[in-house]
Amino acid sequence: MSPPKTPFHPFSVLLLAASLLSIPSTFAQTLNPSCAPGGNFDLSNFSLQLPIGQPGSPTTISPDKLAGCTGFQDKDHFFTNPDDGSLQMNVPGDTSTGCVTTKNSKHCRTELREQNPSSWNPNAPTNRLSANLTVVSAGGSTCIGQIHIDDAISHKPVAELFYDDKGHITVGMEQTREGGNEKTFDIGDVPLNQTFSYEIRYEGNVFSVVLNGGKPVEVTTFQLNAPKSYFKVGNYLQGKTPSTVRFFGIEVTHG
């Protein structure tokens, strides 16, 4: 299955890249499997949250510490895959494994959080998160990308893109800023260990998801009134067993 070609935008921030064989041209560049992720990819606009640390306060790595070929990596959770150069994110399982969650969540994660901008206006004409990835194991179910409401407004997401061990992809949409009333919508199916692409859009106060370059699936039933938001991308485990996600490309576009 061939992923779509992502159009270049002057405000694009290129985060990750991968081989010409499976990745759109906007992502394509040679990766050095011997480098930490920061040596291959520009992580200057993202912080990293790991499933380790103190209860209620997971370890967070700042963008400056991620930078460079000798920058931060964690052999258990966040590292460059030595075989294909992808950015591999692992989660060991649920809290029974000893992994650490935030105080507002019961789930462990290895996840990048957009920092610059720290939040943006959903009424703007362009707000997009694009990714190419392979889910090796979903641990039951994991969130591979999300839009989160600005922390000063709410601790709830706008939307979470879920992938389960059957390869079923859904999006969970909160209906209010208070949360607790999420509705789930089907997006499509991609088998485990198959590379695919997605694009999450929240622009003109309309939310949509594009899978493998297909027709955007719009979800407009929620009543959030366009709160300031930010993107997150990674492996935010919803299940109980270990999960592994390998990213070949991630691109954030605002404008």
UniProtKB/TrEMBL annotation:
Q: What is this protein called?
A: Polysaccharide lyase family 7 protein
Kindly list the GO molecular function terms attached to this UniProt entry: lyase activity
Question: Could you tell me which SUPFAM superfamilies the record lists for this protein?
Answer: Concanavalin A-like lectins/glucanases
Give residue ranges for domain Alginate lyase: 41-254
The opening ranks of the lineage are: Eukaryota, Fungi, Dikarya, Ascomycota, Pezizomycotina
Signal peptide location in the record?
1-28
Entry keyword Membrane: no
Q: What are the UniProt keywords, alphabetically?
A: Lyase, Signal
Task: Kindly give the Pfam families that the UniProt entry links to this protein.
Answer: Alginate_lyase2
Task: Give the species this sequence originates from.
Answer: Podospora didyma
